[in-house]
Amino acid sequence: MEEQRWLKTLRNCQSLLQVSEFAATCQRCPLRKGCRQVVVSAGVTSAKLMLIGEGPGADEDAQGLPFVGKAGQLLDNILHAGGFSRQNNVYITNVVKCRPPGNRIPTEEERQACLPILRQQYRLLQPKIVLLLGATAVQTVIDPQARITKVRGQWVEKDGVWFMPTYHPAALLRNEMLKKDVWDDMKQVIQRYREVVDANHFPKRKI
After folding, report:
1. Which residues contact 61 (CB under 8 A, 6 or more apart)?
2. What is the DSSP string of 159-193?
């Protein structure tokens, strides 16, 4: 019964702000007890490009915003090169909203506990393109058995929405050779964005 009430309250959220306020009270899994704050989202609530990562790290937990550490700064640079920014045309969130201890990969139980919030964000935002950053996002949203090295760069279309798996920016910090792959994926995102969202969108960097 408690579960049903929780889900009903979440589904009754009619704005992304309401979802954020609701998520801030969530205690569905143990992650909330070990983090400083719930990190729900950043960006524009009318954006047609949605980015989904894994979960908050230490910097995100401290600031209450997703992707603000070194990986986030790299992500912002990649977005800027593509003509995107969280201030103008991007909405960013994670699969889980609370930092896993030691930045470990969230467990299946933790992902499932947080998944209804992500689904409500998606339902209210109604994006045209979703950029999935890393294995956790791909496995949660597309296919639990997916391997990021196999599926990155390949479009998945669901009900008229285009999903692009690519590497998490943290992976690029560990292996700079992956940057070319991510930029190749971004070039596809830019082209699809021009096709389905804004024909007048242009990247800052030549593609």
Report:
1. 35, 36, 37, 39, 98, 99
2. TTEEEEEE--HHHHHH-GGGHHHHHHHHHHHHHHH
Q: Report domain extents, the chain.
A: 2-196
Structure tokens given for 148: 């990021």
Say yes or no to pLDDT of 118 above 90.
yes
Q: Which fold has domain 2-196?
A: Uracil-DNA Glycosylase, subunit E (3.40.470)
Does position 1 have pLDDT exceeding 80, yes or no?
no
Where do we find the tokens 């989904």?
52
What tens digit of pLDDT does each residue of 56-86 get?
A: 999 999 999 999 999 999 999 999 999 999 9
**What one-character-per-residue DSSP string does 22-68 give?**
HHTT--SSTHHHHSSS---EEE-TT-SEEEEES---HHHHHHTSSS-
Whole-model pTM over 0.85: yes
